[in-house]
Amino acid sequence: MATYLYRLARLAFRRRRITALVWLAFLVMAGVGAATASSAASSTFSLPGTESQRASDLIEKRFPNSSADGATARVVLRADDGQKLMVAAHKDAVREVVADLGSGSVQVAAVADPYEAGAVSEDGTTAYVSVTYKVGPPEVTDSSRDALKEAGQRAEQAGLKAEIGGDALAVTPEPGAGEIIGVVIAGVVLVITFGSLAAAGLPLLTAIIGVGIGISVITALAGVLDLGSSTSTLAMMIGLAVGIDYALFIVSRYRAEVAEGKQREEAVGHAVGTAGSAVVFAGLTVIIALAGLSVAGVPMLTKMGLAAAGAVVIAVLIALTLVPALLGFAGGRITDRGRRARPVRGGTNAGSRWAGFVLRRPVMVLLTGVLGLAAVAVPAASLQLGLPDDGAQPSGTTQRKAYDLLSEHFGPGFNGPLLVVVDGDRAAAGQAAQTIRSIGGVTAVGPPKANATGDTSVITVIPQGRPSSASTEDLVHEIRNRSERDVLVTGTTALNIDFSQKMNNALMPYLTLVVGLAFILLMMVFRSILVPLKAALGFLLSVVAALGAVVAVFQWGWLGSLFGVEQTGPIMSMTPIFMVGVVFGLAMDYEVFLVSRMREAYVHGEQAHQAVVTGFRHGARVVTAAAVIMIAVFAGFIGSGEQMIKTIGFGLAVAVFFDAFVVRMAVVPAVLALLGHRAWWLPRRLDSALPDFDVEGARLSGAPRKTAAADPDHGLVKV
């Protein structure tokens, strides 16, 4: 592989104008495609194989005009000072609101009069007006939302308190300043690392080009592939981070090769042949982790993972082709400072001094790192999963106030009603309703509502507990256990419960698949069993500690105000599996970049302990810069108004910090120090069976390489 990448890089360097024009053409075509693409339809959320999804599909089939997928809103009206809404003046005001809502937007499908629908509280002080729309939440226009707000304002002018809830008010958050700040911090780190504006600007430029292509392609295909609003944001987050890092590693290696006296074209070839090989395998681990999200069987999560994996593919290709071309354009501006700061071979720097410290005290460093991360991971044992509703909104929002009013006057379970679908005649529906009334934890059971043909009915069930409470989850399971096979439970609350269960069930198979495939990949890279095993165990330590930090901040509220967390609650159900996928890929990035330099030194003749020092001397500064850049990019998304993006941004930033600075910089060298030469052995048959990708570039340098030799003590192979 090193030889092939060496030739590819030299070709891109010599044909730099053509290479740059090809990538520019890709960017333009993707941009045109995004600009001319039709607006995406509402992204449908589905859970194939779950009871709630089967019930939703049955409703859609048997109640074709029910607007089940349309957006909804509730205008909650309350009389002040204990007055009753049954008095004539308040009745007139409420019905005026109903009339305004019915005529305020062409998107409105129906408006329910609370006096006719029984939507007035027992004490008579509070009522709600239900509004359903012909379109999904993303298609609700600003004018329709304005009509909702204006109706509420007129109600307040009439002496009523008005708050509005429902998904009709949901707006896709616009990119905030946090993302821009993350890029600025990345630029500052690159300038400090390279000491050159040209060298610092090149990774930023190539990463932005890659993200531009990736996001444009996602936008162009959003309507065709039914991609949600979070897909492009997550692809941008991952693509920007890895794009900067991959270019950083190649540019850093290029400067080192020039500093050792190579001509620029030869230096580009060696840089891509060695560091580029690490980029390829690091990128493959990220791609495997992201594409493996399809194991969960949730179409939305699969699309998010594949879109982010596509962004990583673009980042790898740009690092291998466009970066060498731009290095050709930059000329001496990238390397002049590198020549003056030429490192002395075998000299010391902060990285080698730190490695020496770890090698002298490996047990102390190992125990400190492992026990420290274990302590941070403790809150992960209390992880609670769920999907946010209006109860997770900040307390000052109208959605949250509407949620609280409904909970106070109609009961906590009113905000999460269950829909029981009976696939049978009216008699079967009546029997099902009677059975449900006998179950504990139920506040109310509505009368069955049959379709036109009378072969299917829907029963609304109001639980006693909050939508995200354990009692409501128990109620859903109890209804399912005590009902016949043709009685199905759905609704947002049941869908959330099924989704959380699906995520829990998928986590272990996903871990097994991703870690297993990456283990085989890393075994081929490092020609070792213990090094990939150490990498996988280190990752598990990092991700569990990161989940512990997420629980402490977003579920327990520790330091919540510092990170803009106004309302604590269950962690979004997809957060753990998505974090596992992304963190695993990024953790393997650092493992490949750092340890491949150690293996390179070991293969070229150095002793095992000295190879660790050499790896840190050449790679610690660059890995540190890469980690700081990733932390800055991910932390920029903490300011997002979307809870999932905020949580994942925080979790990834913390996970990168733990993995880069605790696991890879402390635990890894400590383990390698304790293992010594044993870190690099491999069973004889496995050594001969695995392909040799020459990631360390031994064939490029022509230097003597350690060959496999039998170990009489272990019957294994030393490389």
Outline the structure in words:
With 719 residues, this protein is of the alpha+beta class. It folds into 3 domains: 2-36 and 173-386 and 498-701, no CATH class; 72-169, 2-Layer Sandwich (Alpha-Beta Plaits), CATH 3.30.70.1130; 407-497, Alpha-Beta Plaits (2-Layer Sandwich). The protein is 63% helix and 8% strand. The protein contains 24 helices and 14 strands. Strands 6, 7, 8, 9 and 10 form a 5-stranded antiparallel β-sheet that branches. A 4-stranded antiparallel β-sheet has the order 2-3-1-4, with helices on both faces. A 3-stranded antiparallel β-sheet has the order 12-14-13. The chain is elongated, with a radius of gyration of 30 Å. The relative contact order is 0.12. The model is unreliable at 337-345 and 707-719 (pLDDT under 50).
Quick summary of this structure?
The protein is 63% helix and 8% strand. It is an alpha+beta fold.
Strands, count: 14
Mean pLDDT: 84
Number of domains: 3
What is the distance, rounded to the nearest whole angstrom, between the alpha carbons of the first and last residues? 18 Å
What value does the Rg take, in angstroms?
A: 30 Å
The number of helical elements comes to 24
| Largest β sheet strand count, sense and barrel closure | 5 strands, antiparallel
Beta-strand fraction estimate: 5-15%
Oligomeric form: single chain
Could you name the key traits of this structure?
single chain, 719 residues, alpha+beta, Alpha-Beta Plaits, four-stranded antiparallel β-sheet, 24 helices, 14 strands, 63% helix, disordered C terminus
